Automatic annotation (TrEMBL):
It comes from the Bacteria. InterPro entries: NUDIX_hydrolase-like_dom_sf (IPR015797), NUDIX_hydrolase_dom (IPR000086). The chain crosses the membrane at residues 12-29. Signal peptide: none annotated. Coiled coil: none annotated. This is Nudix hydrolase domain-containing protein. The keyword Membrane applies. The keyword Membrane applies. Residues 11-136 form the Nudix hydrolase domain. Belongs to the Nudix hydrolase family. Keywords: Membrane, Transmembrane, Transmembrane helix.
Amino acid sequence: MQQLMWWTQAKFVVAVVVVVFYHDSVLLLEHSYRPRYPWGLPTGWVHYGETLEAAARREVWEEAQVALGSLYWLYETFPSRRHLEVAFWAEATHMGPQKSSSDGEITAIAWTPWPGMLPEGLLPTQRNIIQMAGLERNKPHQMPDEP
């Protein structure tokens, strides 16, 4: 009966993508599992019970040891039927030791000049996300009114 329930229930995953700026640069990570497009943004799955904001902060810290200021929503999309992707941008506020991940997922961390030439090997969809975040970053942002 448990197997029948597992097979008949919808499986759904939620991922976060984060564009991180620091002064005139953007954070890019070299991923070991994408040989064709190794460079990309910090991304990851949202854990059960975790908020989108907490997942975004956790993924950026786990992958690059970077703490974030305020998170700003960019977009949400369904890249496949059972996969929701939510993108944010933020400014880096603190950086720990910049090193590749111990699990081998991240092989290099780079702060790339922005605006500027993004590296070859950057996932094409993420190139667009960075450009969108750059435009949003230049707009004035207000904090919501306090209740």
